[in-house]
Design a protein that fits this description.
Elements: H1 4-9, E1 19-25, E2 34-35, E3 44-46, E4 51-55, E5 62-67, H2 74-77, H3 88-91, E6 94-100, E7 105-110, E8 114-118, E9 123-124, E10 126-129, E11 140-145, E12 152-156, H4 160-163, H5 167-173, E13 178-184, E14 189-197, E15 200-205, E16 211-216, E17 221-226, E18 235-240, E19 244-245, E20 249-250, E21 256-264, E22 270-278, E23 284-289, H6 291-294, E24 301-305, E25 308-312, E26 318-324
Parallel strand pairs: 5-9
Antiparallel strand pairs: 1-26, 2-3, 3-4, 4-5, 6-7, 7-8, 8-10, 11-12, 12-13, 13-14, 15-16, 16-17, 17-18, 19-21, 20-21, 21-22, 22-23, 24-25, 25-26
């Protein structure tokens, strides 16, 4: 008998049947998120050995751009696992990335050092905000920049990561200790704007700056916090999803892409990865099935750029480029 979950997964067709898919190989694993600069350069992405790299074309491939650790020993860190609590604090572990296209600065969330920023020329990033009310963050993760105010929103996925890094245990935990934080570059103040989140691992701000979206991994939903208007400072469910989401990325037209991983826990945790495009009203516009390209690999981001979808997975040593073909 075919499991119900598998049947459910295949009910989501690949809406863009005619497409191409290519791999941009990385020096190592760990591409959680991608970013593009104001001149369409990139993708930039963080690796699990602590480097942030930029793709400079087919001949050069990915080259080093920045690091988050001020005293990162290259011979120790390059190619090693920065997620390891022994080497991570030394090597750094950049996870979320987003450019402020007005200033050219790249904002970074590092798993061990918190919120950071580096200029358009790269180099060693500067730490802006670290600590959770005076103690280390539980697990800073995703980042987004308000295109109107320049405010930086980032998530702390919660205390569950002090207890376990086992994803099956996290899925079953029901943890709601996650938070959404805001950093104001003008005042350099950091504030908590939303609490009680179920492992918030994705964030995006609307094109007009009126609301911010937060993906909640265990709750399989996206929550909207209104920033302006009559509903300002109130939150609501924006979209219920068929699986576990991750990073949310806004398109130039104001829609959003989110990866949705339909996960099967038994006999072991496997994922059926999708990408869903959602409009500003929470309506699903398009669903893309990535199972043919990623099999059962968890996908952490889907981002639309110049007509292609850039697909990241923290478990892959490449960035995938999915392009719809005109028939």
């Amino acid at each position: 008998m075919v499991p119900i979950l598998v049947l459910f997964f295949f009910c989501f067709p690949n809406n863009a049947l005619a497409h191409s898919f290519k791999l941009i190989h990385l020096p190592t694993l760990g591409s959680e998120s991608c970013a593009f600069d104001s001149e369409n350069g990139g993708p930039y992405t963080g690796l699990n050995d602590g480097r942030i790299v930029i793709f400079e074309g087919a001949k050069r491939g990915f080259v080093d751009f920045a690091t988050t650790s001020p005293n990162r020993p290259k011979e120790l860190c390059d190619g090693n696992n920065g997620d390891d609590p022994k080497t991570g604090p030394v090597c750094g572990r950049p996870i979320g990335l987003e450019f402020n296209h007005k200033t050219g600065e790249l904002y970074i969330v590092d798993a061990f050092r918190g919120l950071m920023v580096v200029g358009s020329g790269g180099g060693v990033a500067t730490r802006l905000a670290g600590g959770r009310d005076g103690v280390p963050y539980d697990a800073p993760d995703a980042i987004a920049i308000d295109p109107i105010s320049g405010a930086v929103y980032f998530t702390d996925v919660g205390t569950i990561f002090f207890k376990t890094r086992n994803m099956t245990e996290i899925l079953l935990s029901g943890d709601t200790s996650g938070r959404l934080l805001k950093y104001d570059p003008k005042t350099r103040r950091r504030t908590v704007v939303l609490t009680g989140l179920a492992v918030p691992n994705g964030v995006a701000v609307s094109r007009d700056g009126s609301f911010v979206l937060v993906a909640e991994y265990i709750a399989c939903r996206i929550t909207r916090l209104w920033l302006t208007g009559p509903k300002a400072n109130t939150s609501e469910t924006f979209a219920e999803l068929p699986g576990n989401p991750d990073n949310i990325k806004r398109t130039k037209t104001g829609d959003f892409w989110v990866p949705v991983n339909i996960q099967k826990l038994q006999p072991k945790l496997i994922s059926f990865p999708l990408g869903q495009k959602i409009n500003a009203h929470g309506r699903i516009l398009e669903t893309v099935n990535f199972y043919a390209e990623y099999n059962a690999t968890y996908v952490t981001e889907v981002q639309e750029h110049l007509g292609s979808l850039y697909v990241a997975s923290v478990y892959a040593n490449f960035v995938g480029v999915y392009r719809r073909l005109q028939c």
